């Protein structure tokens, strides 16, 4: 996936695209893959990097949503469980089954949650993972040795999916590009083009090259997540906002806090949310929160009360109590939820996706979650076919293999998430053995990976590499800052940048990553 190729495609003279997509997160990338797979001409523009926002800051779960089952939203759970099954088949290098234990501290919790999880199993049908079952106290402790044992009576174990969100985003961008789409990061939509009051294209600012160009289109999709209202108001200045922004944060701890392979799921915390402690990349992710916000940004920050909430609840359910100095990283993400009423209670808002069409034909796709990205894409492209006067073609993505697809286990743990591309990265090391060196002693990533990111995954900055192509920023913020000079040096060589660019990149990344360090009083 090379940026120059996509730029050439996007700027082709007299080209009118069938579908132009603004936004390079889960919903936008999914729509690009769906449209391109049907044979439509596609261009996607992302103002920052692919999955820069919400789509790289999830709990890393591909799940039906146990909480939605509690809320009685069976249709959403059913759809999500089907999509979970498809994703495990379409991207097995990134998605796998993960066991979750619900620890029971009252006699009634076993039958209560046990029955609920059996319903969850049945809804998954043939696309289910492994069946749920009751656990004795001894079995519960064997699976999660560091669970709080005071008043513990047993547990329930069930299975859901786990994945690497930004790695899936990169693979989706690669898949769309291989199908002929123009996929561009660091390209911001700065205006809409209209003919007879109907949207007929977009004005794009290529931030990297500081140039502007116009792209014509038969249909335009607004898939900008928490920014959808900004683009809607570009179309209709008087448009009412439809998004309620909810922030969720996570902390990352060393593996010693949850040494087994099972995750912990707490069905109901003090604020009514589900809390997870999940093994991920040999670390532990704990979260999340649901905090209504009045604003949105590309770099949200965890609030003090959110930090305290997650840390307090981690202490409540783990025998080894984490302290601020144990936290390796803390990250925040913003959920774009469709407003209901005043939108003040974001925990109660639906995670269903919505498709809204303006009077000028701008299609807005919002809401939803990673698990259902493929179905969201199918729905919005069918809408785009109708509005754009395109030939209606059957969706091709239900069983389509995503770039990197393989069921073979990688010989190196750090290369597992690259799937079939792992062999090509190993070839780089054979050609230049020095590329086998790590970028930092406390991180698993090799220099060859950075070369690969620049050449084949459209990484343009140190942040692209350390935050999303690898997960260094989330796994160990301090170590990632120390790795920045090594990464900048490799990128500068690959992208033909000078020493000034290198220094600017190190400075910019350091400032960003410092916001991921848990403050210690």
TrEMBL record:
Residues 18-374 form the FAD dependent oxidoreductase domain. Keywords: FAD, Flavoprotein, Oxidoreductase. This is Glycerol-3-phosphate dehydrogenase/oxidase. Belongs to the FAD-dependent glycerol-3-phosphate dehydrogenase family. It comes from the Bacteria. SUPFAM superfamilies: FAD/NAD(P)-binding domain. It is an enzyme of class 1 (oxidoreductase). It comes from Thalassobacterium maritimum. One of its GO terms (molecular function) is oxidoreductase activity. Its cofactor is FAD. InterPro entries: DAO_C_sf, FAD-dep_OxRdtase, FAD/NAD-bd_sf, G3P_DH_FAD-dep. PANTHER family: ANAEROBIC GLYCEROL-3-PHOSPHATE DEHYDROGENASE SUBUNIT A, GLYCEROL-3-PHOSPHATE DEHYDROGENASE. It holds the Pfam family DAO. Its EC number is 1.-.-.-. The keyword Oxidoreductase applies. The keyword Oxidoreductase applies.
């Amino acid at each position: 996936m090379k940026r120059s190729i996509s730029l050439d495609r996007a700027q082709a003279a007299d080209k009118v695209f069938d579908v132009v997509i603004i936004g390079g997160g889960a919903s936008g990338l999914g729509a690009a893959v769906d449209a391109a797979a049907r044979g439509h001409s596609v261009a996607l523009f992302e103002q920052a990097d692919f999955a820069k926002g919400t789509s790289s800051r999830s709990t890393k779960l591909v799940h039906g949503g146990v909480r939605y089952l509690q809320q009685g939203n069976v249709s959403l759970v059913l759809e999500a469980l089907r999509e979970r099954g498809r994703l495990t088949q379409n991207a097995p290098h990134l998605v796998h089954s993960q066991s979750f234990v619900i620890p029971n501290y009252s006699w009634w919790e076993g039958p209560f949650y046990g029955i609920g999880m059996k319903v969850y199993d049945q809804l998954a049908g043939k696309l289910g993972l492994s069946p749920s079952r009751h656990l004795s106290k001894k079995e519960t402790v064997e699976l999660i040795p560091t669970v709080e044992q005071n008043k513990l009576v047993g547990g329930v174990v069930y299975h859901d999916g786990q994945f690497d969100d930004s790695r899936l985003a990169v693979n989706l961008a690669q898949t769309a590009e291989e199908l002929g789409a123009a996929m561009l990061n660091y390209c911001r939509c700065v205006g809409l083009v209209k003919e007879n009051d109907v949207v007929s294209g977009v004005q794009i600012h290529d931030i990297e090259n500081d140039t502007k160009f116009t792209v014509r289109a038969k249909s335009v999709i607004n898939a900008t997540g928490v920014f959808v209202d900004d683009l809607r108001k570009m179309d209709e200045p008087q448009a009412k906002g439809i998004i309620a922004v909810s922030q969720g944060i996570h902390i990352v701890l060393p593996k010693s806090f949850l040494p087994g392979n099972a995750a912990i799921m707490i069905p109901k915390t003090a604020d009514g949310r589900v809390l997870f402690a999940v093994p991920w990349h040999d670390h532990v992710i704990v979260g999340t929160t649901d905090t209504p916000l009045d604003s949105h940004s590309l770099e949200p920050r965890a609030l003090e009360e959110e930090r305290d909430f997650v840390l307090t609840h981690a202490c409540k359910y783990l025998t080894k109590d984490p302290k601020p100095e144990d936290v390796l990283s803390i990250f925040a993400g913003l959920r774009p939820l469709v407003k209901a009423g005043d939108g003040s209670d974001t925990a109660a808002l639906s995670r269903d996706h919505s498709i809204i069409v303006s009077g000028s034909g701008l299609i807005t796709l919002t809401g939803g979650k990673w698990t259902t990205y493929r179905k969201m894409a199918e729905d919005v492209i069918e809408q785009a076919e109708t509005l754009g006067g395109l030939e209606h073609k059957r969706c091709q993505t239900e069983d389509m293999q995503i770039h990197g697809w393989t069921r073979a286990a990688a010989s190196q743990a750090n290369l597992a998430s690259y799937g079939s591309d792992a062999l090509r990265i190993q070839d780089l090391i054979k050609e230049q053995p020095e590329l086998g060196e790590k970028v930092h002693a406390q991180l698993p990533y090799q220099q060859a990976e950075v070369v690969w990111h620049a050449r084949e995954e459209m990484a343009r900055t140190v942040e692209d590499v350390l935050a999303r192509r690898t997960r260094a920023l989330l796994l160990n913020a301090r170590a990632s800052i120390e790795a920045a000079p090594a990464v900048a040096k490799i990128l500068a060589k690959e992208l033909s940048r000078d020493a000034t660019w290198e220094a600017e990149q190190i400075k910019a990344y350091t400032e960003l990553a410092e916001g991921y360090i848990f403050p210690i009083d």
